[in-house]
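mind reviewing this fold:
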Amino acid sequence: MTLKSTDIASAKPEEQELARKVREQTTLEAELTERELRTANLRAELGAFERRYLHFVGARYAELDELKAQIAERLATEQPDNDRAQQAAREARTRADETKSTAGDRAETEPSAFEASPEMKRLYRTVAKRIHPDLTSDREDRAKRQQLMSEANEAYERGDEMRLARILTEYEHSPEAVQGEGPGAELVRVIRRISQMRSRLAEMEAELQDLLRSDLFQLKSRLDEAQQFGRDVLQEMVAKVDEQIEQARERLAKSGRGSSQELK
């Protein structure tokens, strides 16, 4: 509801208060959608960076730890009475399994970095402004919004613009989007929306700070900074691990030849 300046004097107190609260809500909506976009963008960027890191470096560390485990197990087999060798083999195998589980199988194709188009960002802002669950006090409407917002975040991270548009259309045509009538009832709804938005802003700020303090963000920042000076730290890490893998392969091959000679 919007009151013109010429109508203020004749407006009822609840209508004047509603107009003031609507302006406050509009300001908070813009701030919240920008915060949502920034956080979603950072989550997507870190997710893409983590996938690239695991693709290039994590998979190699998994291979290296597997070779080390095989070396330790071979030594343990050759020294069955050596408790330290047996313990080292068990620890090496556990570490190799954990690294493999974290890294997963190396993808056949290189994962691409995340970069949202201006249209994607605009569409996400619109979706967040219209359907975020913290912008309603109705229980059924909130549940529907939570599901749609979760789908919207997934679509944004995948860069699925068509899905984002369908989510917005789905909600816009739902019964939950229908507004009630009457300045008194609307004033209560606006006040509750403002309270919910302020709470959500505090939650978003906490989540954003957690992302900025994460080890993954710190690693990405260091690599991005180095890249500005012409260094590809990721490739440097890959080269270093590849060298260690080659050394481990040679060591494993030598230990295998030694065992074969003892059997002759």
